[in-house]
Amino acid sequence: MKDRPRISIITASKNGARFLRETIESIRKQTFTDWEHVFVDSLSTDNTVDILKESEQIRWISEPDRHADEGFYKAMKMAHGDYIILCCVSDAYSDRDWFRRCVEVLDNDPEVSLVYGIPQHMMEDGALGKILCSDFMKKSPPQKMDFFPFWLGTFALCPEITFCVRTEVFRKCFPKYEPTDSFEQNHAFLAFNYNFNTKGYLPYFVPVVASYGRFHHDSNSLRLAEGNRIAKKQYDSAVIQYGNEVLS
Q1: Contact by Cβ (8 Å): 31, 10
Q2: 20 to 30 A from 147, CA-CA: which of 57, 61, 156, 181?
Q3: Strand, coil or helix: what is 231?
Q4: First CA to last CA across the chain, in angstroms?
Q5: How many angstroms separate the CA atoms of 236 and 3, rounded?
Q6: How far, in Å, CA of 11 to CA of 69, rounded?
Q7: Please, are residues 92 and 212 in contact by the beta-carbon 8 Å criterion?
Q8: Among residues 41, 37, 48, which one has the least CA distance to residue 68?
């Protein structure tokens, strides 16, 4: 692998072997090939490590952590690429040109710090489900600087399973996991979105169904549903408060 690839895909996992090969294969099938895959495993007891050993394109460690967000933080620190894509262990990319599309936007427009597309749900059995933000296919959300008032009014989130972001911006906006009563430290994805917008960075939307996120009975999204619901309410309140301060 190159010492400095264009893209670092970062993944955190604990006992995610069931879908791991499919996730890795969707990355390998990308038409854009200048990437590295950085993988942080939390001492899995399934065959995750055996699968990781099969691939020379993955840099990985396996050690204890308290939460997947802590794993992603470690992977971020290990990343060498110009841009970062966050890939959950049971998710995958349905658009084979997605990496290329992201790099083209970020290379050609220095004002843009993050590119995002449309994700889709997938059921445990592999059946495709709801396309999220499907209205964006008919009418794109506001771009770049015009996204900021849109964010204040809608609390919009750039989907974590599709976005590609400049590495230096990701490092400034992604929090170090510290379990607290606030979303700002214990829910990295919400905190990243909040920090990204309040620090004045600009996103760009590409109208493509880029990836799918899989629902399964032992997924973090189900296990942590109540905590995530509370964190989302805190996030919405923080956006409202920030918007009021800006308007005043």
Answers
A1: no
A2: 181
A3: helix
A4: 51
A5: 40
A6: 10
A7: yes
A8: 41
Quickly list DSSP for 155-215: -----TTT-EEEHHHHHHHSPPP---SSHHHH-HHHHHHHHHHHTT-EEEEEEEEEEEEE-
Q: What is the pLDDT of residues 202-240, one digit of tens each?
A: 999 999 999 988 875 555 555 566 778 899 999 999 999
* Mean pLDDT for the chain overall: 91
Q: pTM for the complete prediction?
A: 0.92
Burial 171-204 (b: 16+ CB within 10 A, else e): eebbbebeeeeebbebbbbbbbbbbbbbeebbbb
Residue 62 and residue 51: Cα distance in Å, rounded?
13
Nearest-angstrom CA–CA distance, 193 and 173: 8
Predicted local distance difference test score (pLDDT) of residue 181: 84
Closest-CA residue to 182 (of 190, 173, 170): 190
Query: How far, in Å, CA of 9 to CA of 185, rounded?
Result: 22
Beta carbons of 177 and 70 less than 8 angstroms apart? yes
The DSSP secondary structure of 116-166, one letter per residue, reads: EEEEEEE-TTS-EEEETTTHHHHSPPPPGGGHHHHHHHH-----TTT-EEE
- Give residue-wise pLDDT tens across range 46-105: 999 999 999 888 999 999 998 899 999 999 999 999 999 999 888 999 999 999 999 999
Q: What is the CATH number of domain 7-247?
A: 3.90.550.10
